[in-house]
Amino acid sequence: MPFITETKDLGRIFGSGSAAVHALQGIDLQVEKGKLLVLRGRSGSGKTTLLNLLGGLDRPTSGEVYFQGTEIGRLPNRNRTKIRRQGMGFIFQSFGLFPLMSAAENVEFGLRLSKVAAREWKTRINESLELVGLSKRAHHRPYEMSGGEQQRCAIARAVAHRPQLLLADEPTAELDSKTGRKISRVFRKLVEEEGMSIIMTTHDPSVMEVADIVYELEDGTIRQSMLA
Ligand SMILES: Nc1ncnc2c1ncn2[C@@H]1O[C@H](COP(=O)(O)OP(=O)(O)OP(=O)(O)O)[C@@H](O)[C@H]1O
């Protein structure tokens, strides 16, 4: 199966009647496995809405959205959650770590939600912290880590169950440009060395530099954009 993610004439309307917002319309997207795809566009152009639909966090108003050939837009919640927890990992702008848990415990929490057997947790935690260069911070809590380290920890948590698809919403927005560049390289490494597929939204040029494909959203429609 060639595509990790595919959409057909995907649309999302929020509200109804005169208050209806056409957040997305006619989105046809095909994402090959093992690529890093970036969605960019102005505030309100529909980036987060599209990412949420691709990740099965929201349902379309019209059209279809596929994950590895399975239409997920109309699946019952239980099935969609299962696919999401096993096949996808999520990263958000504000890291989303639990403040009272160490880096290792945060990663373990991610593993608990997926179907990974408990006997494998320790290995997976060590491997994923190593992958993002955070082994030395395993027992530190988020407030003892820099912003870049916290985002590395969030990445380790998102990839510990080895998802096929990683979705990230503005993952470098809260970081300075040097740290943002380092985090961009971590994403590139996941693609090159782990064969992961990544879709992320960003305004950050350093993320654009590591992308294979860039798409531009404008008023809820999409077009491929030239790489910078
Ligand atoms: N839950 C909602 N209810 C109503 N309107 C919404 C909702 N979510 C998004 N919208 C509207 O849909 C449009 C697209 O929003 P979206 O958050 O996808 O944009 P974005 O490109 O991610 O913006 P930003 O870069 O500011 O995060 C906007 O006009 C927004 O106001």
TrEMBL record:
KW Transport (keyword) present: yes
Key words of the record: ATP-binding, Nucleotide-binding, Transport
Database matches in InterPro entries: AAA+_ATPase (IPR003593), ABC_transporter-like_ATP-bd (IPR003439), ABC_transpr_LolD-like (IPR015854), MacB-like_ATP-bd (IPR017911), P-loop_NTPase (IPR027417)
Domain of life, source organism: Bacteria
GO MF annotation list: ATP binding; ATP hydrolysis activity; transmembrane transporter activity
GO CC field: membrane protein complex; plasma membrane
Gene3D superfamilies linked: P-loop containing nucleotide triphosphate hydrolases (3.40.50.300)
Domain ABC transporter: 5-228
Record protein name field: ABC transporter
